[in-house]
Amino acid sequence: xxxxxxxxxxxxxxxxxxxxxxxxxxxxxxxxxxxxxxxxxxxxxxxxxxxxxxxxxxxxxxxxxxxxxxxxxxxxxxxxxxxxxxxxxxxxxxxxxxxxxxxxxxxxxxxxxxxxxxxxxxxxxxxxxxxxxxxxxxxxxxxxxxxxxxxxxxxxxxxxxxxxxxxxxxxxxxxxxxxxxxxxxxxxxxxxxxxxxxxxxxxxxxxxxxxxxxxxxxxxxxxxxxxxxxxxxx
Length: 234
Fold this sequence. Notes:
This protein is an alpha/beta fold. It has one domain (4-230): 3-Layer(aba) Sandwich (Glycerol-3-phosphate (1)-acyltransferase), CATH 3.40.1130. It is 32% helix and 16% strand. It has seven helices and ten strands. An eight-stranded mixed β-sheet has the order 4-3-5-2-8-9-1-10, sandwiched between helices. Strands 6-7 form a two-stranded antiparallel sheet. The longest helix is centred in the first third of the chain and has 13 residues, at 30-42. It starts with a strand and ends in an 18-residue tail after the last strand. The relative contact order is 0.23.
């Protein structure tokens, strides 16, 4: 899998025990696969909350906790109580867990002419806040094709049919991701309500600056220290 990583040295500074990763969700499939490929090489016990699309990748199913999207805005986790319980148990047992807080692929907004996640789900934000473990922000800097977002303006079902192609059309590309700074449990305690907490986490992802350089995933060996300054993305 060919992708490149900015600020990769931060991956060698991760705390032990429970940890949460949060990411934007621009691809709708490949981004989840990348997160598992990257993090599970560092922490084999890493799991990621995924939807039914990513869950179809059987080779990674041991790293999945699968949930189904729901339109119940008051309690979007209602149909996924078993997945939520499994997630909480995984974190409380001292293992790392990953989330796309939006729960859906990013979309093009006519309001501000940007490709962004929809509003992050309060149920996921509440879960993250409740466990009080370090959080690692990860940002994907690239997006799907223009056609994908055009189809989304017509109908989201038509856009969904395009998703498998959006995975394969990146075979010749090198998606860029950036690794943010760890957000400690102490920092999280400054936010007393879910809205301000969610705004803070979202900014930690979307306001992450473009790294000065990237290194290929293929050169990383997380069992030994690496001089990242000597490595350049090819």
